[in-house]
Amino acid sequence: MISQLRAITVVAAIAGSFTTMAQAHTPYLAPTSFDPLHQGWVTLDAAFTEHFFKPEVVFDDSEFAVLDTSGKWRKPQTVQLLRTRAVIEHQLTDKGTYRFSTGVRHGAVFRLYELDGERKGTRDPQEELPAGAKILDHFQSVTLAETYITRGAPTTAALRAHGEGLELVAVTHPNDLYEGEVFRAQILFAGQPLGDQEVEVFPANAGAGHDAAVLKVKSDGGGFVDLATPRAGEYLLQTRYRTDAPAGAAAPRYSYTYTLAFEVGEQ
After folding, report:
1. Residue 15 in 3-state DSSP?
2. Using one digit for the tens of pLDDT, what is the confidence trace for 20-79?
3. Which of 57, 75, 77, 170 is most buried, by the most CB atoms less than 10 A from its CB?
4. Could you count the other beta carbons within 10 Å of the beta carbon of residue 211?
5. Where are the beta strands (DSSP E) in the chain?
6. What angle do CA 45, 40, 159 make, to 5 degrees?
């Protein structure tokens, strides 16, 4: 199944002329309910999928974490890896907002090349490319998926930045969003504002046509985006960024994907 995912991702990257494709198995971390259940227990799924939030391939090879109401990182109480998804359970013992994270996952390494006018790809680092092949791209996927859940009134300690990689820092609280309002956030890379960065928002569990983004916005020079919240429901925010990898990495470039699952309430 995972091998199938990676093969599909290569094909999608080629077919899309190396542009972002929401349909190319996007990672997500989403709760079964944004309202904590009895005694503060919450359950979340982490997976790769083409249809939000319907799990297809498990999100594995990472360290799941919870940023609690005091701003301290902890391990979730339960993480169970299944074939199509990882299931996380955790009890929110204190009142306030918790940030759930998949942790950063360094995934497959891709080489995309052109041969005799045809674009092809491989994720096997040992595969020798055919004579005459022209390398178009050589990168490793780096993914991070997050969400916020609040017990009681929203608090802000869990909203602080990581300061590493690609991330979104919420200015408007993600658990205090209502239709027609503006969700303001800042896109950072390595702790610095990332300007002219595209952010897309996709509806979840919306039936036919839900793969189309309902919002596409680019960040300003300070990395800020203002998202006019759509109608009430659950959504996935996605942003992708390609840059040079650090020395000693498995590929010369990293392809970052960050996603945030959130809910918009009725007015």
Report:
1. helix
2. 333 358 999 999 999 998 899 999 999 999 889 999 999 999 999 999 999 999 999 999
3. 170
4. 15
5. 26-31, 41-49, 57-58, 65-67, 73-74, 78-81, 86-91, 96-101, 105-115, 118-122, 134-151, 166-170, 182-189, 192-193, 198-203, 215-218, 224-228, 233-244, 253-264
6. 70
Between CA 132 and CA 151 the distance in angstroms is 59
Rounded CA separation 197/57 (Å): 27
pLDDT band at 236 (very low <50, low <70, confident <90, very high): very high
Distances (CA, A) of 147 to 45, 214, 227, 248: 11, 19, 17, 31
Please provide the average confidence, as pLDDT, over all residues in the chain: 89
Euclidean distance between the first and the last CA atom of the chain, given in angstroms as a whole number: 42
What does the DSSP 8-state code read for residue 160? -
CA distances in angstroms from 259 to 74, 125, 132, 167, 229, listed in the order given: 20, 27, 38, 9, 16
Give the span between the Cα atoms of 186 and 172, in whole angstroms: 10
Instruction: Confirm whether pTM is higher than 0.85.
Output: yes
